[in-house]
Every structure is written in structure tokens, then in C-alpha cells.
Amino acid sequence: MEFLYFLLIGAISGWLAGLFFKGGGFGLIGNIAVGIVGALIGGWLAQQLGVGGGGLIWHIIVAAIGGWILLLLISFVKRA
């Protein structure tokens, strides 16, 4: 059940990151991938800043912010 919860957060946060960054998602698999990597980035960043929270909404927001950062880094690499 935790694995499904993890995939759900990944899909939602990746979709949100795609919306905020370029106005569209990347399909289910792409959204999950961006969300999972974004969750790792966002979780690390939140820990470094000393901010925390709990619950589904908090996890989605942190993962979406991390996903947005990931997409920003990818766009810089593509331009170079």
C-alpha cells in the first residue's frame, strides 16, 4: 500500500511541476519519474532549510517544488 501512496504522490507532484514549469505534464510515467526525483530533491532541500510538515498535501507540495527545480536544471542543461 505504501508503494501505491508513493506512486500517487509522484504522479500528482510531477504533474503539478509540469504545469508550473511549462504548462503541461509528461504522461503518467514521466510525471511519476519527475515526482519521485523531485520528492528526493524537495525532501533534501526542506531538511536543509529546517522546514517540515506532514500529511499528503505537504508531501505533494515538497515533491512538486523539487520537481520544478529538477525541470529548471534540465532546461539549463538543454540550453547549454
Quick take:
With 80 residues, the protein is mainly alpha-helical.
Commentary on this structure:
- The protein has 80 residues and is mostly helical.
- It has one domain.
- It has three helices and no strands.
- The protein is globular and about 40 Å long.
Core attributes:
globular, 80 residues, mainly alpha, 3 helices
How many helices? 3
Which residues sit in consecutive blocks of at least 5 with pLDDT less than 50? Answer: none
SSE class: mainly alpha
Task: Domain count, please report it.
Answer: 1
Order of helices and strands: HHH
* Count of beta strands: 0
Main sheet specs? none
Radius of gyration: 12 Å
Shape: globular
Whole-number mean pLDDT = 81
Helix content: over 70%
Oligomer: single chain
Distance between the termini: 41 Å
Taken as a percent bin, the fraction of beta residues is under 5%
Helix and strand arrangement:
Layout: H1 2-22, H2 27-49, H3 55-79
Helix pairs in contact: 1-2, 1-3, 2-3
